[in-house]
Design brief:
mainly alpha; Globin-like; 48% helix
Length: 261
């Protein structure tokens, strides 16, 4: 059983921190990978510190220090290691299987709540890696690090911009992302998050990005404003159609004016 809600630890703390993740990664890359016919060749040329890097990545994903971002470049660095590798579903499934075995060997918590979070992330992340590794894949640019918490969900199918060809998702109920041009703030006043930006963000948009940040949270949108603007400008967010130029300009103006709450 985990702690009482008022003292709830992060997933990272519940795991046992960096030491536990490094123990799991070391077991994975030393005990299982070298002898596996699918994964052995895939990681044969891995850097000597690869296990440590994986542990730092998982630590940051699960709420620990931003060590992977600070030392190795964050999401874009991890993405670059998957491009063009043509990973298969068979290799992905073996990776998941052996990582779970390594978690068991390393003595990571075995409660249902934690194992649900761990399985949820490695299933999601490994499938994204396979998608991004295919020939012709075009992953969305400037994505933030994923953050997995006790109640994280990546959203409904179609809420994420895919890296490869797919059928366009049906627009969710609510405001059409194309929409009509939105008027400037009344009286020519400054742009605020509460009055001008948050009303443009649908619940479906929010659900589709919860794995990274909360689009209805002023603090989180303020922190990731440049990344969000880059995706809005590129037309990759929201996933069912780009914002109109006037809405993108309004978001950019909000940034330029100081990101008022």
């Amino acid at each position: 059983m985990r702690y009482a809600v008022e003292n709830e630890p992060s997933v990272y703390e519940w795991i046992g921190g960096r030491a536990a993740l490094e123990r799991m990664a070391q077991i994975f890359y030393e005990k299982y990978v070298p002898h596996d016919p699918l994964l052995g060749p895939l990681f044969a040329q891995a850097a000597p510190d690869h296990a440590q890097r994986v542990a730092l990545w998982l630590g940051e994903v699960f709420g620990g220090p931003k060590a992977y971002s600070d030392d190795f470049g964050g999401y874009s660095s991890m993405l670059s290691r998957h491009l063009g590798r043509a990973l298969t579903e068979e290799k992905r499934a073996r990776w998941v299987e052996l990582l779970v075995a390594s978690a068991n060997d390393a003595g990571l918590p075995n409660d249902a709540e934690f194992r649900s979070v761990l399985s949820g992330y490695i299933e999601w992340g490994s499938r994204i890696a396979v998608e991004n590794s295919q020939a012709g894949a075009t992953p969305p640019p400037a994505m933030p690090m994923p953050h997995w918490e006790w109640h994280t969900s990546p959203g409904a199918p179609g809420s994420r911009t895919p890296a490869g060809p797919s059928h366009a998702p049906v627009a969710s109920e609510g405001m059409n992302p194309e929409g009509e041009d939105d008027p400037a703030p009344e009286g020519g006043g400054g742009v605020s998050f509460r009055s001008d930006i948050k009303p443009l963000i649908r619940e479906a948009d929010r659900d589709g990005m919860k794995w990274a940040f909360d689009l209805w949270s002023y603090d989180e949108v303020r922190e990731h404003a440049d990344t969000i603007l880059a995706r809005l400008s590129a037309g990759t967010m929201p996933p069912d159609g780009p914002w109109s130029a006037s809405r993108v300009a309004l978001f950019e103006r909000w940034i330029d004016e100081g990101k008022a709450p």
